[in-house]
């Protein structure tokens, strides 16, 4: 958007460049289960997170779920005809789900950083409380293990260009309009 500002009879032109994002509603769901979901329009977070996590770790969960909406995962999973039902963990379905979860972790650390949070908190989250939430041998195949998530996030942060400005637009944002394969 280009604006022409006039002060004391002198015009000054300035541009405002939008950054990609999404309109998202947030909802707190009262319950004891540690779960959070995003459906493209809404992010629901269980009150258990607020009860059990300090703000920096809660920010990791919020950034991850918001990343799903920014990256349009719900719509892209639908377009790719990926099952969310009984077969969601198997074969192509599981692989694509896992990819969207990894991408949400990647973008989430940049959202944290851009918002002024320490992005290393995401690594610490998956090494600590996230590992306890993970489910161990019973964890869902739609998500990487907690230790793999911590490594992926650390690698993402290692790729951050030195002196990168805020807001930083990470490469994963370029995928938001691409089909899932």
Break the fold down into its secondary structure elements and pairings.
Elements: E1 2-7, E2 10-15, E3 25-29, E4 36-38, E5 42-46, H1 47-52, H2 55-70, H3 73-79, H4 91-114, H5 120-127, H6 129-133, H7 146-158
Parallel strand pairs: 3-5
Antiparallel strand pairs: 1-2, 4-5
Helix pairs in contact: 2-4, 4-7, 5-7
Walk me through what this model shows.
This protein is of the alpha+beta class. It has helices spanning 47-52, 55-70, 73-79, 91-114, 120-127, 129-133, 146-158; strands at residues 2-7, 10-15, 25-29, 36-38, 42-46. A 3-stranded mixed sheet has the order 3-5-4. Helix 2 crosses helix 4 (91-114), helix 4 (91-114) packs across helix 7 (146-158) and helix 5 packs antiparallel against helix 7 (146-158). The model has no long low-confidence stretch (mean pLDDT 90).
Assembly form of the protein: single chain
Major β-sheet, in short?
A: 3 strands, mixed
State the helical fraction: 40-55%
Number of helices: 7
Task: Provide the low-confidence segments as ranges.
Answer: none
Question: Helix and strand string, N-terminal first?
Answer: EEEEEHHHHHHH
User: What is the general shape?
Assistant: globular
Structural class: alpha+beta
Quote the average pLDDT.
90
Radius of gyration: 18 Å
Query: Terminal Cα separation, in Å?
Result: 34 Å
How many β strands by DSSP?
5
Strand content: 5-15%
| Major sheet: arrangement of strands | 3-5-4
